[in-house]
Design goal:
The complex is a heterodimer of chains A (380) and B (103). With 380 residues, chain A is α/β, with parallel strands linked by helices. Chain A is built from nine helices and 19 strands. Helix content of chain A is 29%, strand content 25%. In chain A, strands 1, 2, 3, 4, 5, 6 and 19 form a seven-stranded mixed β-sheet that branches. In chain A, strands 8-15-9-10-11 form a five-stranded parallel β-sheet. Chain A has a three-stranded antiparallel β-sheet with strand order 12-13-14, with no helix packed on it. In chain A, helix 1 packs parallel to helix 7. The longest helix of chain A has 20 residues. The chains are: A alpha/beta (380), B mainly beta (103). Bound molecules: flavin-adenine dinucleotide.
Chain lengths: 380, 103
């Protein structure tokens, strides 16, 4: 376990024992997902006075933050200069202080017609009912299809980050990274820190997708970034032993004669994430296809309310963005879910106003134009 | 156990106690509490299952309990998501073939 995770006590709240399908515990608000978005939503709703519970499928809270050893930047508003793992610790401490009910190691597996959630925890299935739900389940890594892309050794970049930074396992010997967004730029740097070689980062577009600072850092470390390149196949019998890459033309066609074989035992896919909307489909929420926000996303308004007035969303589930904005959206969702039950008050209004102010500040950066136009599309 | 990171500029790894478990018929050591997939990976085992139709080797993909690429048979139960399932002393882990079989 890493330095932040080790300080976290295993939680088992007193009410967990009583959870069974015959006796449904009732909550005002149930938050699904204990990443930055869900934690902020829970903290705000609890501070305002709601009776809440946070459910997460991991043994420790923090979502993606627990594997992020780099210092956050890019957004002035929140925790700039602090490592992800430490932000997770700060949020978890707040949750502890507020004595928020946590159901950890618990996967929400269904949303039923009577507005209850089906939960699987340690081989037991039970239900929970809340008046209002906030979904903050995050996203899953996209797969890329190429010849032999099902071979062991083709991993999500986040998966490799989890293996090395959370579990302390050497993920491999030599990596090829596909995609040059921030994840594709940061994870290879962390591989180097763990003593793993990085052969190259390849990017199909003619420019790097992530922040310039991350790109400069990885180049300084001697890792080449091949623009206008893609992978055509993985080679290997039982596991990846090499990858064949090729240059692409202006129409993304593979340019014959430019193939190169790169010896590696890992191929990291860092081509983006997709919101985990399955439970919202089940709940009957409207789902829209908005590529700018990450593909199929639950429709939501400025209050982070979905097409159902008792269901709210925030964070990567609402749009693939970043931890700072996930936290701000979480605050809005938490306050609005509270208001939906008890009406607005001075404090809840202030929280929403402040979070909106910070959100528009972050989203004024040129990197965030895509998000703004995506959110516009949702309104249509 | 050299599949584990020992020195890291930022992180310090506190691990559970060493336990023994079985993969196929081989005895392997790992740290208690780590996900089974992590312990297997550290022991050099990457092929976790064999696909149903074309019998192709499969490993993990997401490592955070979302993609179902790492289903194995654990103590006779198929479809255990080993990227989330903690390692315990004495468990028996097998590669799953296709949809797996309850023993
Ligand atoms: C390599 C990398 C680098 C990054 N760098 C930065 C950075 O520098 N700055 C920045 O601001 N952002 C960064 N991000 C992005 C940031 O981590 C995410 O935007 C943020 O974590 C999203 O928060 P979230 O709470 O929406 O989702 P998550 O953090 O994904 O949390 C969701 C939680 O819900 C749980 N969950 C999902 N489904 C269920 C279910 N059915 N039942 C129970 N629990 C469930 C998940 O397991 C998880 O714990 C980076 C991301 C990656 C991968």
């Amino acid at each position: 376990m890493n330095s932040s995770a080790k300080n976290q006590k295993p939680r088992s709240q007193k009410n967990i024992q009583n959870f069974s399908s015959s006796k449904l515990p009732n909550f005002d608000i149930c938050v699904v997902g204990g990443g930055p978005a869900g934690l902020e939503a829970g903290i705000v709703a609890k501070e305002l006075g709601a009776n809440i519970i946070i459910i997460d499928d991991n043994p420790v809270l923090g979502g993606q933050l627990i594997k992020q050893t780099h210092k956050f930047f890019g957004s002035k508003a929140h925790y700039c200069g602090v490592r992800g793992i430490d932000i997770a610790k700060i949020l978890t401490d707040m949750v502890d202080e507020l004595k928020i009910d946590i159901l950890d190691n618990a996967t929400v597996v269904g949303y039923y017609d009577d507005d209850t959630l089906g939960i699987l925890r340690k081989d037991k299935l039970f239900q929970i009912k809340a008046k209002t739900y906030i979904f903050a389940a995050g996203a899953s890594e996209n797969m890329l299809v190429f010849e032999n892309s099902d071979l062991p050794g083709v991993y999500g970049a986040g998966a490799v980050q989890t293996m090395m930074n959370v579990y302390g396992v050497v993920p491999g010997r030599r990596a090829l990274v596909i995609g040059s967004g921030n994840i594709g730029l940061i994870v290879p740097y962390q591989l180097l820190q763990s003593g793993v070689e990085v052969a190259a980062i390849i990017e199909i577009l003619d420019k790097v997708g992530g922040y310039y600072v991350h790109a400069a850092k990885i180049k300084r470390a001697g890792v080449p970034i091949y623009l206008k390149h893609t992978i055509i196949k993985a080679k290997g019998k039982d596991c990846v032993e090499a990858a064949v890459i090729t240059q692409v033309g202006d129409k993304f066609e593979c340019l014959e004669g430019t193939e190169k074989t790169i010896e590696c035992d890992m191929i990291l896919i860092a081509i983006g994430l997709s919101p985990l909307c399955e439970l919202l489909y089940q709940a009957g929420c409207r789902i829209d296809y908005v590529p700018e926000l990450g593909g199929n996303v639950p429709y939501h308004n400025e209050s982070m309310m979905t097409s159902k007035s008792h269901i709210f969303v925030c964070g990567d589930l609402a749009c693939i963005e970043e931890a700072s904005t996930a936290m701000l959206e979480g605050k809005i969702a938490g306050a609005k879910a509270y208001e939906a039950l008890y009406g607005e008050n001075k404090k809840s209004k202030e929280i929403v106003e402040q979070a909106n102010k910070e959100l528009s500040m972050i989203r004024s950066s040129p990197f965030e134009q895509r998000i703004l136009s995506g959110k516009e599309k949702l309104k249509a | 156990m050299d599949g584990y990171i020992t020195e890291h500029p930022i992180l310090e790894f506190k691990r559970g106690k060493k336990v023994k478990f079985c993969f196929e018929d081989k005895e392997i050591e790992g740290y208690e509490g780590l996900p089974i997939a992590a312990a297997l990976h550290a022991a050099g085992i990457k092929v976790l299952s064999i696909s149903e139709r074309y019998s192709r080797p499969r490993g993990f993909f997401c490592a955070v309990g979302k993609c179902s690429s790492c289903l194995m048979e654990v103590d006779g139960n198929p479809n255990v998501m080993v990227c989330m399932e903690p390692l315990r002393q004495g468990i028996k882990v097998r590669k799953q073939k296709g949809k797996g079989q309850k023993q």
